Amino acid sequence: MATTWEYATIPLLIHNTKAILDQWGADGWELVQVVPGPDGTGLVAYLKRPSGE
Description:
Distance between the termini: 11 Å
Protein name: DUF4177 domain-containing protein
Order of helices and strands: EHEE
Organism: Isoptericola halotolerans
Oligomer: single chain
């Protein structure tokens, strides 16, 4: 059976990026990609984890 995934997008605060990603990682989320935010100044992280179904 194929793995099913759930996804999250979160804003990243430049001064606190590691702590934010460490917390999400501890909850089972894997970083997929970081892209510029819609305002062009911040960053948005895309994360995934198995959905558990």
